[in-house]
Amino acid sequence: MVNLMNSKKIDLTEADLSKACDYIAKQFAAHSWWPTEQPGEAKREFDLMKGSATALNVWCERWLDAGQCKKMEKELRS
Q: What's the superkingdom here (predicted)?
């Protein structure tokens, strides 16, 4: 499961991968500005990095702020 500390460090496992990818894809579809900086570049990188939990952890740490990480963690726990 996701282990979110006080920072935006996130630790997705392979078991989280499908649900995390679904959550991120829904955010892209619902909000053209998501994530807040360079959403087009973030989406291109997501398409390349969504194949493994290790790569997606790197993507999350690069593109998501602490609040976005917390929201994703809540979604993964639901």
A: Bacteria
